[in-house]
Design brief:
By secondary structure, this protein is an alpha/beta fold. It is built from ten helices and five strands. A three-stranded parallel beta sheet has the order 3-4-5. The chain has a two-stranded parallel sheet with strand order 1-2. Strand 3 (about 135-140), helix 8 and strand 4 form a beta-alpha-beta unit. The radius of gyration is 17 Å and the shape is globular.
């Protein structure tokens, strides 16, 4: 993102700034950073961003202890799904790259690069796989994940080691955890 900002003479952001400002729809996040959609369309920016994203998408490591938690949940019979505002083929490539596909019953993303909302995708997954489930919890890292959980009338736990600050996530009134260890404790109590 800082490369985009530099090209347009806009101020750089730090990781902390990113976590404070990131929001769905992503178009609103771009606006808070100073992008002017009268000069260039959000669609064009999205495509340009994804082009750069693809070059670096496998650079990050998984969050520490995440694979062990996914394995534990899988071994105990918990059905796991990925629902994301990321474009579906990129999402599936990431899941495969990190060798996580065996943990999930289904992986669903969007059909575009605009990252607007994932409520419809979550509703579809819920209707296809989870409608009769007695316990469902959405694990997410954005305020939008809380919106999705509310739209589906399901429980939610948010993690502060993703896209948003703990402070922003706490405003949703859902539990917020700071580590995979804390997340596992919440899930064990669930």
């Amino acid at each position: 993102m800082n490369g985009f900002l530099k090209e347009r003479g806009l101020p750089f952001i730090s990781l902390e700034d990113y976590k404070k400002k990131f929001v769905f729809p992503v178009q609103d996040y771009y606006k808070t950073l100073g992008f002017d959609f009268s000069k260039e369309s959000f669609s064009a920016l999205s495509l340009e961003f994804i082009k750069q994203y693809k070059k670096h998408m496998f650079t990050p490591l998984l969050v520490k202890n995440m694979r062990q938690l996914l394995f534990y949940l899988n071994e105990t019979g918990v059905l796991q799904f990925v629902v994301s505002a990321q474009e579906s083929s990129l999402l599936k490539k990431a899941v495969e790259h990190y060798k996580l596909n065996g943990f999930f019953s289904d992986v669903q993303g969007t059909n575009n690069y605009r990252a607007t909302s994932k409520i419809a995708i979550a509703q579809k997954t819920f209707n296809q796989h989870l409608k009769k489930s007695k316990k469902i919890i959405l694990i997410g890292d954005t305020e939008h994940d809380a919106e999705v959980a509310r739209a589906l009338n399901i429980d939610c736990c948010l993690v502060s080691y993703g896209h948003c600050t703990r402070k922003k996530l706490k405003q949703t009134s859902f539990p917020v955890v700071d580590s995979v260890k804390e997340l596992k404790a919440i899930l064990l109590d669930y």
